[in-house]
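seq:
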Amino acid sequence: MGICTFLQTHLRQVTRFYANIASTQKIKKVVYLSYSVRIPSLEDFDQINALGVWFQQNSNFSKCGWSVKKSLHLVYSGSQAESNTYMRVCEKDGEIVGLFIGNIMEYWFSEQKIAQELVVLFTPLHRNKITPYLTEMINGFTAWAEAKGAVESCIGITSGKAGEGYPKFIESLGFNNVGLIFKKEV
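struct:
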């Protein structure tokens, strides 16, 4: 049994334990565990894939199509510690409500490495509650990038779906706004 499976099983047992206590003690309200950030496993593929499809269809990437094969490879790669893919999911009560994916590669002009965010996404219902979890994901990405030998990490907005406060939030984590991205459909 892998650590993720163990933790998921333990989380379910703890939740059931507290639910049983609540029912025997006549407690009117049970507070379930809240959000958590973790490394994904292949068992998460269906939820991650569905979240990715939703994002792709509702962003500037809606005309790009979707590859289940690439999605599966990305989840597999993101679940492997030695991989050059960083992936974290944000989960609430067993449901994946957000994710962060990044990678590391050499600059095109140098043998030095750069870490790049590929996508950050959360379902609309949970976006106003995720600041500490997104902070954990981004700080984890930066630490991962440093451990992999990157000289810098980059986070951008290319989907057209970031909230108004997102740029200031990213700057509050120590990132500098260094430019713009322009797109043109061809």
